[in-house]
Design goal:
Two copies of one chain form a homodimer. Chain A is mainly alpha-helical. The first copy, chain A, is 65% helix and 0% strand. Chain A has nine helices and no strands. In chain A, helix 8 runs antiparallel to helix 9. The longest helix of chain A is centred in the N-terminal third of the chain and has 28 residues. Chain A is elongated and about 60 Å long. At the A-B interface, helix 6, helix 7, helix 8 and helix 9 of A face helix 6, helix 7, helix 8 and helix 9 of B.
Amino acid sequence: MSVTERKTRPHGDARRRTVLTVATELFSQRGYNAVSIADVAKEAGLSQAGLLHHFPTKRALLLAVLQERDRGGDAPTPHGVDFLQAFTDALRHNDATPQLVQLFALLSAESISEDHPAHEWFVERYDTLVAELTAEVAAAVDPDKLPAGIDAETLARWIIALADGLRTQALLSPESFVRADSVEAFLAVLRPYLRAEDSEDPGTVGIPDGY
Amino acid sequence: MSVTERKTRPHGDARRRTVLTVATELFSQRGYNAVSIADVAKEAGLSQAGLLHHFPTKRALLLAVLQERDRGGDAPTPHGVDFLQAFTDALRHNDATPQLVQLFALLSAESISEDHPAHEWFVERYDTLVAELTAEVAAAVDPDKLPAGIDAETLARWIIALADGLRTQALLSPESFVRADSVEAFLAVLRPYLRAEDSEDPGTVGIPDGY
């Protein structure tokens, strides 16, 4: 690595981060469709050429924003009931940064159009989320205890839908209720359907304090 | 009324309807922020001046689109359990026109920003919907049967959130499940909490066939 590279890399990284922060802010306020590369460059204090050096297209910038904001932590993934608890913990954590919550609300709605550059990304994100949550719900609930016609996938879709739908209500009227509390109350209603603690698969059924 | 007025009125009405149809289409595909008056005028085959004659601002056009699409029918409003059944019937009816469903998904997300011209409209729409549904849920359920910590407003928020959240999932993956069926299954899960049919207020508790 040359001296020049060593010197400029940190500047480049800092600039890249500034662009991502500014793009996140503008996309979450107005949506992807209504924001131009020129808007982001201006707000980030860069020339358009300077911005395009880091992100060659607006689409590449969008995908970088989504990737950046959807990274999981390094903690090991819990399973079954613990996973459901971790899900509400994550909602509570996310709600501390309403701008990012708004970003996902707005981009997921925009991306319903098949020609939106994040369409495939959101289709896959929801497919993965539904599959993952379905597996964890299946590990947590006793199918014999579920009401007729309700399966693990239905419950998984409800939990994801509640998190998304209550997000809209909470962002429009932030004083009216706490989203994570409401989702947690829903999970508490599922308690009668959980596997007994002394089931054959005790690894998945520990109910944490305060669940 | 002059002869001229009588002759031009139907043309004016037809033009107004064309503009509303085009605006609905463009707003539902790209969002309000990314669509200009010039885009709508071009697509509707009008000059900008011609469009502004009917809708003096883009904001006025948006509010006309929302008002037009959110009109209730003329049928009398049912109450209690019948209202909940009517709610899923309305979802099923709406899902037959996915473009309008997408319009509300996208505009409600955009309108979270306080400077969006439909912000107040959506805040009021959700406040009204939550209040109305809370009253109907309260008429349908027996508070003594509800799990601890769950009240009528919580259930009302869940039902609205399910309808909105499942909308995103169904629009992204139309083949995966039927939104109205899923919401109907949720209402069926509430059955143990309903007032007995022989309660003191029989007018609100009749459970329709197939509920």
